[in-house]
Structures are given as C-alpha cells and as structure tokens.
Write a structure and sequence with these properties.
By secondary structure, the protein is an alpha+beta fold. It has two domains: 3-142, no CATH class; 146-261, no CATH class. The chain has helices spanning 57-66, 69-72, 80-86, 146-157, 163-171, 177-181, 187-194, 197-202, 205-222, 230-244, 250-257, 267-287, 292-304, and strands at residues 3-7, 20-26, 30-37, 45-52, 75-77. Strands 1-4-3-2-5 form a five-stranded mixed β-sheet, sandwiched between helices. The radius of gyration is 20 Å and the shape is globular. Bound molecules: zinc ion.
Length: 305
Amino acid sequence: MVTDTFCVLTSDINHIPLEWRLFIDSSKVSLKAVLLRNGNALPSIPVGHSVHNEESYENMKILMEAINYDKFKWQICGDLKVIALLLGLKQGFTKYCCFICEWDSRDRSLHYSRKDWPARKSLEPGIMNVGNQPLMEPRKLPSMLLKLGLVKNFVKAMNPKEAAFTYLREKSPRLSEAKLKEGILIGAQIRELIQDEYFDKLLQGNEKSAWINFKFVVKGFSENRRALNYEELVHNLLQSNQKLGCNTSLNIHFLQSHLDFFPENCGAVSDEHGERFHQDISSMEKRYQGKWNCYARRLLLDFDK
Ligand SMILES: [Zn+2]
C-alpha cells in the first residue's frame, strides 16, 4: 500500500461542525475530503487528499484520523460505496453489501421482486460482510449521489452499437471509452443530458422508457420537493430498469427498499454540492499537482480573512 496523505489541520479551522458536511469522494487512486457549508453560502474547504494505489478501509481510516473526524463528527456525504467503506463493510460484489438490511445481492432471482428484507442487526466485524470497525456513525444521509448511481446503471445497460450511445460518446469527447462504458458521468453532464431533447429522440424501446422514467424520478423524487406520486415514479423506473436488463446495484436496491433513507430535500442541494466539489477538485489538481497541501492551506488562510 503506497499512501501519500495531505491534510489540513482541521483544528485550525474556526467553525461550528454542525454547520458543515464532510464530503468524501473515493476512487481507485485517490481519496478526497472537502468541508461544505450547509446552504452554499461559503466556499468549500478541502481538508484532505490521499493518493494511493488502492481503494481501501485502511486508506479511509488514515484520512479520517488525519482530519480529526472523531473530534468534529461532521455529517458525512458521499456515495453508497464510500458510506459502506466507512461503515467497515468489505468491498466488491459481496453477498450482504447493504448496511441497512440483509439483502442477498447474489440471489438474482429475487432482484426486483423482493422488497422487504430483515434489518441488519449489527455492524460488528466478522458478521455479515462487516470486515472492520465502523469509522462513522450510521445515520440518515443528507445527501446522496443517487442520481449519479442511477445514470451509471443506465449507461452501462445501453447498447453501445446504437445511435444514442454513439451520440453520448461524441458529446463527451473528454471521457475515455472505458469511463463511458462504466457509465461514469458527472453531475453537470447529467444535467445537460436530461435537457437534451435530441438524446431523447435517438433512444429507442426499453432504453427510451428507462430514460424517461429516470427523468421523472429526478424531477419528482430527488429534487428538493417530492411529488405526491413519487412512489409510483420510483416503481415505474424500477420496472423499466428491469426490462432493460440492469442488474440491481446497491443504488437500485436503495431505491427499491430504503426510500426512507433519503430525507425530503436530498436532491438539489447534494447534486449542486457534488458538482461543485468535482469541479473544485479537478481545477485544484490541475493547478497544484503535487502541491495540493499548499493550495489547501492558502485557501484556508483566505477563508480566515
Ligand atoms: Zn438494504
């Protein structure tokens, strides 16, 4: 494990932890942590960046300790994978990969049909896929990257030989073919695609209905206010994903079984945060390759003024 972790001394930041959220983004090569002010009134503060060659619990632990998470206990946001890692769950396509219930992710015959599973009884290491001590308290997440997860599922299920996929490829020249096939689009690209009528026209059959139902869910469920019929919208999306042949990912399982886990206004704020976070981070990385820590410190000084 090669780990290079840069962190800001969080105790130097004069702030009220309840007013901030810790946004964590993890990939195979790096881990990034940024403090976001609730309500978007202040700029975000990058507090930690770890470069490594493995996405692991150990790296997450180093970062959490370095930024003093135990002292401040900020509300955490991140995608379901990040949350699962922070809760000590083993990675990969494991049988019990949900941290809320005993969903058997390997039993494909029950995907899309069984909604209710017994609640998980503990997050104790050694039991039901828990490998390590949780690094955070399990609680409702204010902000989920559900939209990103759902788009990922959709793009992965698209037929790469069809015109709609070709269009997506031409539209996103900066995305590598591999990333596109993995369905990795960022918030701003998704927002643009949602408004793209030409993309709608190119889609056919099951792909078209899955996309249209996804858009209804974005509008009626994951934005700031929930539509009265949001459960029906979610149900329609699940049905069309099934027809399209999407596997039940953890994201889809949450949509199917844990709608309660998403508080009322989980959508717009988190997406906006997520988008800004990705933009901030990529411009920081471009400008301050290897000198990220200096940048973070300077930003912190500016923030103090
Ligand atoms: Zn579950």
